[in-house]
Amino acid sequence: MSMLSVKNLGISFGGLRAVDSVSINIEKGELYGLIGPNGAGKTTIFNLLTGVYKPDTGIIELDGKNITGKSTMDINNEGIARTFQNIRLFKNMSVLDNVKVGLHNQYKYPTFAGILRLPSYFKTEKAMNEKAIEILKVFDLDEEKDIMAANLPYGKQRKLEIARALGTNPKLLLLDEPAAGMNPKETDELMDTIRLIRNKFNVTILLIEHDMKLVSGICEKIFVLNFGTKLANGEPKEVLNNPEVIKAYLGE
Amino acid sequence: MAIKKTTKSNLITIAILIIIYIVCQILIATGSMSNLMKGLLVPLCYYSIMAVSLNLTVGILGELSLGHAGFMCIGAFASSFFSKTMVDVIGNTFIRFTLAIIIGALSAALFGMIIGVAVLRLRGDYLAIVTLAFGEIIKNVINVLYIGIDRNGLHFSMQDSMSLNLLEDGEAILNGPRGITGTPKNATFTIAIILLILTYVIITNLVNSRSGRAIMAIRDNRIAAETMGIPITRFKILAFSISAGLAGVAGVLYSHNISTLTATPKNFGYNMSIMILVFVVLGGIGNLRGSIIAAVILTLLPEYLRFMQDYRMLIYAVVLIALMIFNWNPTCIQWRENHSLKNYLPMFFKKEKEGL
Ligand SMILES: Nc1ncnc2c1ncn2[C@@H]1O[C@H](COP(=O)(O)OP(=O)(O)OP(=O)(O)O)[C@@H](O)[C@H]1O
Ligand SMILES: [Mg+2]
To answer: Which residues in chain A have Cβ-Cβ distances shorter than 8 Å to B205?
Structure first.
């Protein structure tokens, strides 16, 4: 059984068919790349998978369970976490608290226990801090834990988004252009980190990326999207040498 | 483990409040406090509670409420009604007043919850409009409402006290525009300051807990919060109900500090809600200590400017603008940091420890 199975997914915005009959199967533990020219519909697919948009057609199954049409919140509880192309951190909260928001459904105590500072508050907060620091260490962000998220440099903000998403303990992690705005050195480090988290956190990853080096370097499979439909799908070598793909990227 | 910076700042605020309380008590005992000031002590506390509780909605939850005085009104009338009917039944003032506070808080929180359930599921600034309407409606409803009690129970009317048809042992408690008279005056400065500290502790503890983080996450980025699996509407309603309930507590203090409780545009109207909002904005959105400072300064100021008569509001406006600049202007912020107490009295401020 696939971790993610998408059949015939589609959505229109007014007259524009932004995504049309897209089918993808991602196996457990795979690192999958989603590429395509600007405006191809990549982010829209992420928005469909996470319930931000409801699809007009198609079925989305996560780990064998139909999650089509569920709310964003429920889909996260089912096990999909994501990052955003235009960073959406909790800007006025500390780096540590951003990750702790990610841990919200993993560690629980009632509101009144927090207000009355009951023992469960101290116990759970301690466990949350430890877990959050553990995740932050993976991204080399533990030194910055008390800094306001808005004050982090751009590259670290992208990393913090991934850390926060991992906090929700996902089965499937969707990364929307994680290397955007990073310099080559940072991009290299990020590639290592992505590989590392796949193994350490036992998570399946689907990532959108424009940086071909990153995509061909770490993805085991690639899906190429053009004008909302599939252009090619398969192993990086064959896909990136596909004349159709080259044409779509370089223009006629 | 070192105490966290936020915890420390909260403890400082509470210490300042306690010191102010002690100083006031000494001034009263030595007879050096004016009657004007004595009369303002409880109001200063309930305005501060109003400002701090509104800051939960505006600063922490990030929603605009224009009817905070409406919740104060609910708390005032519900608790007053309770105290007046129970004054002979429950002899112990402490127990009766404690129950009155709880009733005032719960009834205001209930209205907050009803409004929240209706409005907070929507996206956009509907809360501002609905709370504005709520504040006006509640005041007008109370002005036409008559409630009496006799041995058969409660009687309601929307016309006058005669149509309550009370038995001869009965008594009309709420008399429409004449409100409730003869509420026991149980609100002392001591209780008021305790309630202010409690309000402050409830909100700061909430903010620094799992639910508080969820609430602030919603404020900072709703879509990202949803993607983290947070039930948006539930936490919005939670924060708004707590904010309303604490405004109800302010209402209890208000109604147990005066002999005749009426709902007028002056005490529970739109102007009052806006004034509280001004406290919050000037004190700093999300800054609870600032809310208290702004509430105190802006309540005392008009009282002490009375001798200026017509120029009073002019000066008030100038002070508002000056405070705003002092709070938000970058040069002023820089100046404040350079001249902060920490630079003059470094021995009292230990360096923040690095790391865990
Ligand atoms: N909410 C929306 N309403 C209307 N049109 C939309 C909406 N969201 C996306 N679109 C359109 O759908 C198309 C695909 O957009 P999408 O953001 O998915 O592209 P993308 O592949 O992520 O591009 P990029 O590489 O620039 O991020 C675009 O033409 C875009 O304008
Ligand atoms: Mg995109």
So the answer is: 114-117
In a domain, A180, yes or no: yes
pLDDT in tens, B46-105: 999 999 999 999 999 999 999 999 999 999 999 999 999 888 888 889 999 999 999 999
Nearest to A21 by CA among A75, A63, A59: A59
Ligand 1 centroid from CA A39, angstroms: 5
The answer to whether B228 contacts chain A (CB < 8 Å) is: yes
Percent of chain B as helix, strand, coil, to the nearest 5: 70, 5, 25
Question: What distance lies between CA B58 and its chain's CA centroid?
Answer: 13
The answer as to whether B4 is a domain residue is no
Range of B150's domain?
40-267
CA B62 to ligand 1 centroid distance, Å: 29
Amino acid at B26: I
Question: Residue B13: which H helix or E strand, with range?
Answer: helix B5-29
Rounded Cα distance between B293 and B351, Å, is 26
Q: Render pLDDT for B308-342 as a digit per residue (tens, 0 to 9).
A: 777 777 777 787 788 777 777 777 777 777 776 66
Q: How many Cα atoms within 13 Å fall on the side-chain side of residue B189?
A: 16
Q: Among A168, A188, A218, which residue terminates a domain? A: A168
Do residues A8 and A17 make contact, with C-beta atoms less than 8 angstroms apart? no
Rounded Cα distance, B331 and B339, in Å: 12
Q: CB distance A115–B206 less than 8 Å?
A: yes
Residue where the block lists tokens 């439909």: A229
Nearest CA to ligand 1 atom 5: A13
B209 touches chain A (CB under 8 A): yes
Interface membership of A50 toward B (CB under 8 Å)? yes
**Residue A152 domain boundaries:** 93-168
Q: Whose CA is nearest to atom 25 of ligand 1?
A: A38
CA distance B158 to chain A (A): 39
CATH code, domain with A238: 3.40.50.300
- The reply to whether A85 falls in a domain is no
- Any domain includes A181: yes
Specify the number of domains making up chain A. 2
Band of residue A250 on the pLDDT scale cut at 50, 70, 90: low
Strands A204-208, A221-226: pairing is unpaired
Q: Using CA atoms of A26, A32, A37, A39 in order, give the dihedral in degrees to the nearest 10.
A: 50
Give dist(CA B46, CA B252) in Å, integer.
9
> In sequence order, what DSSP letters do the residues of A204-251 get, joined into one string?
EEEEE-S-HHHHHHH-SEEEEEETTEEEEEE-HHHHHT-HHHHHHHH-
Contacts B206 to A, Cβ<8 Å: 111, 114-115
Residue with CA nearest ligand 1 atom 2:
A13
Q: Is residue B47 part of a domain?
A: yes
On chain B, the residues whose CB falls within 8 A of the CB of A77 are 229
| Residue range B227-279, pLDDT digits in tens | 999 999 999 999 999 999 999 999 999 999 998 999 988 889 888 999 999 99
- Tell me the chain B residues in contact with residue A82 when contact means C-beta distances shorter than 8 Å: 227
Q: Are strands B146-150 and B153-157 parallel, antiparallel or unpaired?
A: antiparallel
B214 touches chain A (CB under 8 A): yes
Instruction: Confirm or reject contact between B160 and chain A (CB < 8 A).
Output: no
The one-letter amino acid code at B204 reads T
